[in-house]
Amino acid sequence: MANLFTSFTLWLIIVLCTQTMHAMPLWPGGRSTRFYDFKLQTMKITKLCNTRDIVTVNGMYPGPVVYAQEDDRVIIRVTNQSPYNATIHWHGVRQRLSCWSDGPSYITQCPIQTGQTYTYEFTMLQQKGTFLWHAHFSWLRGTVYGAIVVYPKTGVPYPFKFPYEEHIIILGEYWLRDLVQLEQATLASGGGPPPADAFTINGHPGPKYNCSSNDVYTISVVPGKTYLLRLINAALNMENFFAIANHKLTIVEADAEYTKPFTTDRVMLGPGQTLNVLVTADQPIAQYSMGMGPYMSARNVPFQNITSIAYFQYLGATANSLALPAPLPSFNDNLAVKTVMDGLKSLNSVNVPKEIDTNLFITIGINVQKCKSKMSPQSCQGINGGVMAASMNNISFIKPNISLLEAYYKKINGYYTEDFPGVPLKFYDFVNGAPNNIPNDTSSLNGTRIKVLEYGTRVQLILQDTGTVTTENHPIHLHGYSFYVVGFGTGNYNPQTANLNLVDPPYMNTIGVPVGGWAAIRFVADNPGVWFMHCHLEIHLSWGLSVAFIVKNGVGELETLPHPPADLPRPSTFPAEKRKELFNSSPGKASCSNEYSTNSSGKAANFLSEVIGLVLPMLLEILIWARCFAWEACIHPLHHLEGSSIDIEVREAIATFSTITF
Ligand SMILES: [Cu+2]
């Protein structure tokens, strides 16, 4: 009997190892697997004297923290129990050979419908630091966001003195409105969105807002100790300054890559950007304000101007002692932004591509399209009675109604064209001489135009802000890659005078292209798939300020995108007539189901995929647990989700890690 048991155990181990090795031949370092269970659900919340429903993950706002270590495999099962379609994007995760898990809706997958489950899987291959995850459907990410904290491998120290404690600080915006409806209403109006009702720090507006004197985030600090703050901007439509009264911030990491230490009084983060800063509690015992305020570089755009305040409170200070105000720059202080950007350098010399195969010049800006005769004035509330838009190289991106990745992978024609221009259609003085006869000559062309790159292409992008309508700092985010920011400046890019840093430029995933200026970025296109590049101001994304790159497969398994996972949300199987009625798409064409929410016929049509979606994750989970048992290399998936994770002291998290066998 014992022999039989031993044989069975050996057989099981061999089967599991073979299965695992077959599934993950590329990530030998990924010895641990982190398993998370995300349930998208609505939750009642009271803020600013109003109670309303917001969409959350696991009833937490901000959502749970995903903890991992460099090279870990991360598996996150997302079940959509909210009334909206949804996807989750793992911002900054380079998704090596896992484009199917990237998450932007209509780019790499159809949305997960109400009642459906999709399991995201990726490896934090050679990545560590502070990231964020957020919804990537409509404007759901306004409440559906959280941090990803990836620690170095066991035994590998930080390149700075180990902090006494670490804290996650997520900047956000809060609306007293349903965000999916807000996007729809804004687009239907043709005009701009209303400003947020509040800024928030870890979900708390702070004492300057109505009914919020107790809705304040506080960090208690010990005099003399040094703290690591993991700053994340998850705001929807604003870039933001952050500062702490009387305290210096030393930046040591930007977009999850180490930087040379740079000390400053304040920082600016665009949505999607992260900064790790060290702060030493070296001031007299008191309560100090941590402030989040607006950075608005565009002209004539209304914005929230009340500072969100949190407290940096010394032990021994009385809770009701007056907090010293945080010294935030004025909302249009471009110099403050430049000063921080100038200070960002990679910690060490880096391997920047010196020669370039593909050089693209991409203008970014706002447009106003003409009100069409059949449109009512209610639909044309943009500037001068036009319809607001935004574009790259004057092309406003129209999202397709199936995922581009699926269309590309399965060679389904008719959803995109491969003619995104590598240079603007017209050259002019982009910053000072931009067209301004609104909307007669500021229109953009609409299209789903993408750019194809061969595997291994060394790419340089010049991102040039334009003055159509208004110049503005745009936080441009590239999926699937980090890129070297080799240069930036004000005015028009000029290759003769541009001063490029090819030694130690920062390695980022989101670059705030300076207002009325340019940025030059470089990367090697060595990750096959379809990768979105877009402005991370959500309204600009809705208006079309985006493009997608197809990066083709290279040679062999290590350069080839694997098959899609079985539970990938798929285009619907509606009969052609029904599809025409529901989505107004041509008969015979596949389509992701109902764009904004699921209806009963949608559910019925997707019954089979739901069954597959339920059974396959269960099988997967059994395999994972069996593997954990065999290798003793896992922790219980739900351990991370207990309590309000945003307030978990990171020391506790480290203690959790020490119990794991690596
Ligand atoms: Cu933008």
From TrEMBL:
Transmembrane segments: none annotated. It catalyses: 4 hydroquinone + O2 = 4 benzosemiquinone + 2 H2O. CDD domains: CuRO_1_LCC_plant, CuRO_2_LCC_plant, CuRO_3_LCC_plant. It is found in: Secreted, Extracellular space, Apoplast. Residues 1-23 form the signal peptide. It holds the Pfam family Cu-oxidase_3. Keywords: Apoplast, Copper, Glycoprotein, Lignin degradation, Metal-binding, Oxidoreductase, Repeat, Secreted, Signal. Binds 4 Cu cations per monomer. Its cofactor is Cu cation. Its EC number is 1.10.3.2. GO terms for molecular function: copper ion binding; hydroquinone:oxygen oxidoreductase activity. It comes from the Eukaryota. One of its GO terms (cellular component) is apoplast. Residues 41-153, 165-316, 437-553 form the Plastocyanin-like domain. InterPro entries: Cu-oxidase-like_N (IPR011707), Cu-oxidase_2nd (IPR001117), Cu-oxidase_C (IPR011706), Cu-oxidase_fam (IPR045087), Cu_oxidase_CS (IPR033138), Cu_oxidase_Cu_BS (IPR002355), Cupredoxin (IPR008972), CuRO_1_LCC (IPR034288). One of its GO terms (biological process) is lignin catabolic process. PROSITE patterns: MULTICOPPER_OXIDASE1, MULTICOPPER_OXIDASE2. Belongs to the multicopper oxidase family. Lignin degradation and detoxification of lignin-derived products. This is Laccase.
